[in-house]
Write a structure and sequence with these properties.
Elements (H helix, E strand, L loop, with lengths): L3 H9 L4 H12 L12 E7 L2 E7 L2 H6 L2 H11 L1 E7 L3 H9 L4 E8 L5 E7 L11 H12 L2 E6 H10 L4 H16 L1
Parallel strand pairs: 2-3, 5-6
Antiparallel strand pairs: 1-2, 4-5
Helix pairs in contact: 5-6
Length: 183
């Protein structure tokens, strides 16, 4: 049973049923892992064999210090990623593309009020980033709670030469079609 505040957060979509499920799971392990008492879980998400946890500042070290707990989570959910929050887009991007750096981040505000960010990366950094564009999109979007697309500059130039539309072009077309229907 949830308190009224937590129930309201669940009803508003600020937290999910999985956040509650994982919080209960962690609560049952608090006796064996006293560091959990000082941990504040902001968000928990499962994506393609990964468990992504967003915890309050200084929570990452507390959590990762509990090796047996982390191993249990890896067994149960797959790879565990811990990010300190509240997450800021540029900081999260930098964490996942390090040692590379982004060229720029653009935001699109869609007619339905949602926001989508497009992160441009240098083509020469492709081999330095351990995740594919799709993996970055899934992971960072889950952490941020909004759509985040990743694209390499050289890919953009090649596409413009080939004139083959990609996900970015398709989204831009969709957005312009939505605007024309709204007017």
């Amino acid at each position: 049973m949830l308190c009224t505040s937590c129930q309201a957060k669940l009803d508003n979509g600020e937290i999910t049923a999985f956040d509650i499920e994982l919080s209960k799971w962690l609560l049952h392990r608090e006796k064996d892992h006293p560091n959990l008492e000082n941990l504040t879980l902001l968000r928990a998400t499962r994506i393609e064999g990964r468990l992504i946890l967003v915890v309050k500042k200084k929570g990452k070290e507390l959590f990762l210090a509990e090796e047996t707990l982390v191993n249990e989570l890896v067994e149960k959910f797959g790879e565990v990623m811990v990010v300190e929050g509240p997450p800021k887009l540029r900081r999260v991007i930098q964490e996942f593309i390090h040692p590379a750096s982004e060229v720029g981040v653009n935001s699109l505000y869609l007619p339905d009020g949602s926001k989508e960010s497009i992160v441009m990366l240098r083509g020469e950094d492709r081999d330095r980033i351990q995740y594919s564009n799709d993996e970055l999109r899934l992971i960072v979007s889950a952490i941020m709670g909004e759509s985040v697309l990743f694209e390499y500059q050289k890919d953009r130039l090649r596409i413009e030469e080939d004139e083959t539309p990609d996900e970015f072009d398709q989204r831009m077309d969709e957005m312009s079609q939505r605007r024309s229907r709204i007017r």
